[in-house]
UniProtKB/TrEMBL annotation:
Keyword Transmembrane: yes
Start and end residues of each AtPDCT1/2 transmembrane domain: 73-231
Highest rank taxon of the organism: Eukaryota
Keyword Transmembrane helix among UniProt keywords: yes
Regions crossing the membrane: 43-61, 91-117, 124-141, 161-184, 196-218
Protein name: AtPDCT1/2 transmembrane domain-containing protein
Origin species: Paramecium primaurelia
UniProt keyword annotations, A-Z: Membrane, Transmembrane, Transmembrane helix
């Protein structure tokens, strides 16, 4: 007799879903961790008054009041010596640029081919599509001026995903956000070392885009936040996205022949697929 967990695993691993069964409603005024401090009324009163005090303090001391002309970026100011070094020693800037391009090209090929060979869901590309569509909208809603130290000359070695020259695609950083999504996807499927590699590479890309002044510092931080948010949202809606994809695919089926997919499950992993 199958347990509830077995049923969940079966559904998750790809049984033919015709209708969605929603779980019983959860009271979202309560916590999933009974006994935590939020159940104490005095603690909630303390949080309430602390919130009022902190919001007032942040408004008084953390809101800039200077009349800034142009864009003031502390990341660019701190890294100006490195930016000057790039301009003075062209060979050095080429090495940094090429390493950046190689990382992104390898990530692009690895993550795409891994999905083609091993993945059976649309999670990765759903996250990437949303990330870049929203980015494209932002790029055309607000066009920022070029940073004073912008330097991104063509090293004359082509790249699959990196373009060189003057492009005002600032908000938000695709260099960094792409690698964050790759790292999250690898973590999701249990590849911890590849996940750590992509996260480390995202730090290097952040260093590159700020020191070359091809992105503002806020582009990097928001790129990380957007990538993480969109990926988590896709994970939340993952089954519904795949279900919608299946419904769209059925509209374009050339034959009326029904195919049945059988899934062999071991623990919580899908280990084989056969189509009848």
């Amino acid at each position: 007799m199958k347990s509830v967990n077995d049923e969940k695993i079966t559904i998750y691993n790809g049984e033919d879903i015709k209708y969605f069964v929603f779980p019983d409603k959860f009271d979202h005024t309560q916590s999933g961790v009974p006994g935590n401090p939020c159940y104490n009324f005095r603690f909630r009163i303390f949080v309430f008054f602390s919130y009022i005090v902190l919001t007032q303090l942040f408004q008084l001391f953390c809101t800039p009041t200077e009349k800034i002309i142009g864009v003031w970026d502390i990341g660019h100011q701190i890294t100006t010596p490195i930016n000057n070094m790039y301009k003075e020693h062209r060979w050095f800037s080429i090495v940094i640029q090429l390493l950046s391009a190689i990382i992104l090209d390898v990530a692009y090929l690895y993550i795409s081919l891994y999905w083609v060979l091993y993945q059976r869901n649309f999670r990765l590309f759903a996250a990437l599509i949303i990330f870049y569509v929203v980015r494209a909208i932002h790029l055309n809603l607000v066009k920022l001026e070029f940073p004073q130290n912008y330097y991104w000359e063509d090293p004359n070695i082509p790249s699959l995903v990196v373009k060189y020259g003057f492009f005002s695609d600032f908000f938000y950083s695709g260099h960094v956000g792409y690698l964050i999504i790759c790292g999250l996807e690898m973590k999701r499927i249990g590849k911890k070392y590849m996940s750590a590699f992509f996260f480390m590479c995202s730090l290097y890309q952040a260093f590159v885009v700020i020191t070359f002044a091809i992105h503002y510092t806020i582009d990097v931080t928001t790129g990380c936040i957007f990538a993480h948010y969109f990926y988590n949202q896709v994970c939340y809606w993952e089954v519904k996205i795949d279900f919608l994809l299946k419904m769209l695919a059925n509209l374009f089926q050339r034959t009326s022949k029904q195919t049945t997919a059988k899934y062999e499950v071991q623990g919580d992993k899908q280990i084989g697929v056969t189509t009848v």
